[in-house]
Amino acid sequence: MWVFYNGKILDLENVTISPFDRAFQFGDGVYEVIRYYPEKFFEYDSHLDRLKSSLKKLEISFTAFVNIESILYELIRKNNLDDQLSIAYIQISRGVQFPRRHYFDDGMEPTVFMYVEKFPARQEEMKSGVKAGLEEDIRWMRCDIKTTSLLPNVLSKQRAVKNGVTEIIWHRNGFITEGTQTNVCFIKNNELITPPLSNFILPGITRGIVLRLCKKLGITTTERDIKLSELNGFDEILLLSTTAEVIPVIEADGKIINNRIPGPVCRLLQGEYQKLYNAESR
Questions:
Q1: What's the CA angle centered on 222, arms 216 and 225, to 5 degrees?
Q2: Could you tell me the residue range of the domain that residue 95 belongs to?
Q3: What are phi and psi of 221, to 5 degrees?
Q4: In whole angstroms, what is the distance from residue 72 CA to residue 3 CA?
Q5: Is the bond preceding residue 109 a cis peptide, omega within 30 degrees?
Q6: What is the pLDDT of residue 115?
Q7: Cα(253)–Cα(255) distance, integer angstroms
């Protein structure tokens, strides 16, 4: 497997990471995941803008953005994924610091790691829907930063796996926030409702696409706080992410949604989303 590490494309076996890298010791870094639909990275510029925003918020000094896209295409080529549905992973940490200190030095050289892998579409989940659980959102106050510090996400996702559900939808102080790997939106009387962006919500790329699609299709959208107690009253619940695209929830916390049948708004958005990436990939 060919990867990019600190200026070079290398065989993964030849990559050596310092134990004093702050990503290893503190989770002090950011990341992005970009979908590759042959033969193009989908919404690349939006992902790059979010990566820049995350780096700025964490005060990580990195400027070599112009090289990233060409590196990713070279990785696709070297790993023979030109015609395969794939994802690219980009991680930039603050870098190596010794001795270990909580504060960081100015002018540190960031550690940059990128790889690509084959990642098929989640067709069955998109077609049939999934089950979701509910948990209290106990993350820190800056969930708008796509940081590698993901331990709450990891533990919630592990409980989801053990409990036979696909995703955990979080709530904080009685209001829905998002999922462990997804943004969440709700349909009521053909209106799409989603929590507003805040420091508790990651500005999802797919979330933004879906809002744009709704405007194009004439579907009313509302961004507002959603009470946990409202969950039983929605016609549809949708999970949105780069790797999930648009997935319907047919059961939430044991409560059946729309007779376990993915709803019409979900189907419409799935179709329009597919048209969008097919058009961009030509």
A1: 150
A2: 2-118
A3: -125, 145
A4: 9
A5: no
A6: 98
A7: 6
Residues 160 and 111 in one domain: no
Residue with tokens 């989770």: 27
Last residue of a domain, one of 118, 147, 171: 118
Position 43, amino acid: E
pLDDT surpassing 80 at residue 281: no
Q: Does 207 lie in the same domain as 142?
A: yes
Which residue, among 236, 242, 244, 241, has the nearest Cα to 268 in the 3D structure? 236
Residues in contact with 22: Cβ distance below 8 Å, sequence separation at least 6, in sequence order: 28, 29, 93, 94, 95, 96, 97, 104
Query: Total domain count for the chain?
Result: 2
Q: Across the chain, how many H-helices and E-strands are there?
A: 7, 15
- For 199-234, the pLDDT digits (tens) are 999 999 999 999 999 999 999 999 999 999 999 899
- Check: pTM over 0.90? Answer yes or no: yes
Active site residue 131: no
**Look-up of token digits 């709704």:** 214
Contact 210, 273 (CB under 8 A): yes
Return the pLDDT at 282: 60
> 57, 127, 131, 146: which is the annotated catalytic residue?
146
Residue-wise pLDDT tens digits, 59-89: 999 999 999 999 999 999 999 999 999 999 9
Nearest to 116 by CA among 150, 154, 147, 85: 85
CA–CA gap between residue 219 and residue 211 (Å, rounded): 9
Look up the CATH number of the domain holding residue 153: 3.20.10.10
